[in-house]
Amino acid sequence: MYIVQIASECAPVIKAGGLGDVVYGLSTELESQGHSVELILPKYDSMRYDHIWGIHDAYRDLWVPWYGAAIHCSVYCGWVHGRVCFFIEPHSQDNFFNRGCYYGCDDDSMRFAFFSKAALEFLLVSNKRPDVIHCHDWQTGLIPVMLYEMYKFHGMGNQRICYTIHNFKHQGIDGARVLHATGLNNESHYFQYEQLRDNFNPFAINFMKGGIVYANAVNTVSPHHAWEAHHTDVGAGLSHTIHLHQHKFSGILNGIDNNFWDPETDRYIPENYNIDNIDAKAKNKKALRERLLLQEVNKPIVAYIGRLDAQKGVHLVHHAIYHSLNRGAQFVLLGSATAPDINGQFQHEKHVLNDNPHVHLELGFNEELAHLIYAGADMIVVPSNYEPCGLTQIISLKYGTVPIVRAVGGLVNTVFDRDYDSTKPPEKRNGYVFNDTDYHAIDFAMERALWLWFNDKDEYRMLTKQGMEYDYSWNNSANDYLGIYETIRHK
User: Which domains does the chain have, with CATH numbers?
Assistant: First the structure.
């Protein structure tokens, strides 16, 4: 099958969050199964050019219709760790992708509306006719709209679109100017509620809604998050639109790259290990303590890895630090704050706890240290307010580190409470789960995990091994996507 992925990110060349990891990981697995995969990306000035091999001109004179005229673009081709990627560079006074950043500009909606238009124009004029076009998040939400309202009448009538939503919080909101710029000129048509009109602002169009309405298949990144988006406020105003299109909406769990996240081969940790010699994990725990100047004592290490923001349940992260210390455990945090007030709070805590030999707060992100924490910690807390999929808990299971998670999104689909889960037999349970966002809820889950560590080492060891037995690699998820591709390409 010939598949083209169109996205605003692809790790490691363009990465602002999990989207980049998904685009790269899924593409790699699809290719390993014998499918032809190409990626179309913006050519940002700030992307990691050192991760592109053999970049060269692919199409010099791409003229993209825009506001009744056209913008001249160049298209470059290169290989990103084996993936064939096309990078679109507009030559325009707008400098759409020469901003020193990927996102955060006042005209983001217009920037990515242009990118979507340019990607389709490139497919058209280069005679590329993929079986499936796979688009991601709000940035490419207009691609299915333009394909089925315009490009299908110019030789692209057989292409089908899978549209994946990674985060409902950002949807791409703008006005009629986007319609005029892209050539979708029939305002009265697109501003109907059943089309692109935002569900709550009658004077705005919604890119993500357009993707849901027009794509052949729509999914988000875990089955439980799909249910949440359909039935709760997690859908951020799009629940009714999802309901109208529920026949083509589903959830597919993200995977992890086993070439990068595997304690048996991980080059960032001092002692490799697997499920059969899990006792070697203790050497990584010792190395973690040495690196972070923690005291060498008979205590468990509780960890947190991730952003420090409202989505991640930052108030519970803060609480978990002191709960761990009060219960005789050590705590390690690796994360960067996304807001000044949160950063200030954790900078203050870092100062207060600086001389405590049982805690280390690393404010920032360090890839090598992240691997060592996964390998050296005993348990990890993921107290998210919402979590579309979550990779932290999946990676921790792979490394024999017991996850303590809140029952939201993909956390529900991957972690099964040792004491109370009714969907799995005891030998298939792999962590601890809590439901509410108050301190009592996370305390109870942490108490149970810490009690087992202190009082029954054999049972705790068995729990870590049960977690390591789960396979959350891209292999399973890619097969689910292939099932969708096969279904829509024959419609």
Answer: 2-255+475-489 (3.40.50.2000), 275-471 (3.40.50.2000)
